[in-house]
User: Which sequence fits this backbone?
């Protein structure tokens, strides 16, 4: 849907880089502007064969798939970067205004030079408010967005999800906002600016826990087990999730686990199951531990309220992903054959993403003409 557009991406974090990946998946020509040493994601492990190589970082191979790379020292080659942005439909960045301003890359300046430009800027706290000058990491954004307060076991320290979930969530939101602004530009002929705060995205994604904001109801942490019939259990070789809080699902769980103990009067109502939660949890734990993940997958395939916590290895060869062509094996010039996930939307013309670019591989093709124009 974006195959006639050019996106210039100037990023340092996963947030804007992930938005750029989706732009590439949607067909846009995404030009990743990297410093001479490469994008920071290139130095985020793991690496192929455990050898640190900026071309074989797993994060780079995933997030930068489908893009083209040019390397620029933006401080000393700002005019080249500006000319590149003038050739684009979208300028996507997470670089703060303190860096953009001296380079004349603030929205108000770019809009004068290129009235049809769409600019998306992702920062930890946005460009307004007292936090606008603060730096932020994924942990900071999760904490100040409210996610840490609701994650973890009751009475213990808050927990943060693995990786950079705040930034990846912001990347998805930024892609959606960018496409919306492109549609608006097509309707009006005028470019648009999106100022996106990662903190705000995290807060919006708290689901029902946002009742804290709406009604003043304090969200409490429940850990891995909200109740005996809604939580994570160990099995013989992994973990499984049981979701049988509703009466109909409880009856299905009793069919899957035909244990005499589950027929006890204590467990025949929701109130009873909650009152005797610890006893029921012990019974169900003994049952799941007696089963392998393969045995439990059979129950899941039959429609019982049981879900195995899959490993990446299992997912890559799962029938579901194979049938949906969600995993593609691509040949990368430095990393060899690697598996790359497709975009989450599917269509009749879905194709494998191009492998992530080598650092500066498009310098001559893209920047050569621009340098001539600048001089």
Assistant:
């Amino acid at each position: 849907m974006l195959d006639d557009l050019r996106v210039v991406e100037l990023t340092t974090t996963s947030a804007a880089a992930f938005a750029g990946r989706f732009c590439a998946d949607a067909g846009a020509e995404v030009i990743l502007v990297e410093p001479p040493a490469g994008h920071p994601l290139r130095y985020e492990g793991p690496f192929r064969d455990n050898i640190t190589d900026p071309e074989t970082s797993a994060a780079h191979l995933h997030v930068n798939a489908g893009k083209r790379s040019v390397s620029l020292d933006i401080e000393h080659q700002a005019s080249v970067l500006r000319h590149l942005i003038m050739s684009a439909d979208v300028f996507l960045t997470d670089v703060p205004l303190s860096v953009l301003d001296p380079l004349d890359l603030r929205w108000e300046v770019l809009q004068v030079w290129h009235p049809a430009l769409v600019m998306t800027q992702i920062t930890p706290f946005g460009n307004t408010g007292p936090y606008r000058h603060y730096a932020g990491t994924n942990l900071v954004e999760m904490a100040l967005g409210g996610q840490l307060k609701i994650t973890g076991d009751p009475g213990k320290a808050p927990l943060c999800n693995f990786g950079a979930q705040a930034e990846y969530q912001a990347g998805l939101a930024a892609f959606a906002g960018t496409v919306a602004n492109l549609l608006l530009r097509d309707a009006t002929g005028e470019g648009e600016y999106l100022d996106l705060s990662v903190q705000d995205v995290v807060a919006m994604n708290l689901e029902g826990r946002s009742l804290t904001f709406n009604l003043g109801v304090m969200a409490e942490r429940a850990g891995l087990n909200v109740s005996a019939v809604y939580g994570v259990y160990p099995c013989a070789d992994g973990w499984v999730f049981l979701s049988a809080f509703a009466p109909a699902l409880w009856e299905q769980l009793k069919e899957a686990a035909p244990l005499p103990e589950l027929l006890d009067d204590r467990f025949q109502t929701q109130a009873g199951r909650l009152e005797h939660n610890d006893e029921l949890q012990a019974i169900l734990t003994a049952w799941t531990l007696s089963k392998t993940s393969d045995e439990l997958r059979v129950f899941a395939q039959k429609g019982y309220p049981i879900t195995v916590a899959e490993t990446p290895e299992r997912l890559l060869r799962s029938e579901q992903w194979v049938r949906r062509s969600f995993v593609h094996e691509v040949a990368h010039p430095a990393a060899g054959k690697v598996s790359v996930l497709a975009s989450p939307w599917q269509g009749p013309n879905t194709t494998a993403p191009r492998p992530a670019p080598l650092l500066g591989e498009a310098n001559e093709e893209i920047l050569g003409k621009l340098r001539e124009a600048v001089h």
